[in-house]
Design brief:
The chain is built from 4 helices and no strands. Helix content is about 60%, strand content about 0%. It is elongated, with a radius of gyration of 20 Å. The chain starts with a helix and ends in a 17-residue tail after the last helix. By secondary structure, the protein is mainly α. The longest helix is centred in the middle third of the chain and has 17 residues, at about 40-55. The protein has one domain (about 5-60). InterPro entries: Cro/C1-type_HTH, Lambda_DNA-bd_dom_sf.
Length: about 70
């Protein structure tokens, strides 16, 4: 599939596809539409969920600082 066809299927412009390929920023909704058209959205979401779970289970990542109340000097 070329840039033009992908853009048409994802409902975006060829310029947006080109920006993505060059590592430039694009709208997150557009990125998700492109991933969906490339049939990699589900594996992408699964990977994010697995990584999120790993981070949450890591005891080093848990908040260890005691929050202290700050005075309201205003």
């Amino acid at each position: 599939m070329d840039q033009e066809e992908l853009a048409l299927r994802a409902g975006t412009s060829k310029n947006t596809i080109s920006r993505l390929e060059r590592g430039k920023g694009i709208n997150s909704d557009t990125l998700l539409m492109i991933l969906n058209q490339l049939e990699i959205l589900d594996p992408f979401i699964e990977t994010i969920e697995k990584e999120y779970e790993l981070v949450n289970r890591n005891p080093v990542r848990k908040r260890s600082r005691v929050e202290k109340e700050l005075p309201n000097d205003f």
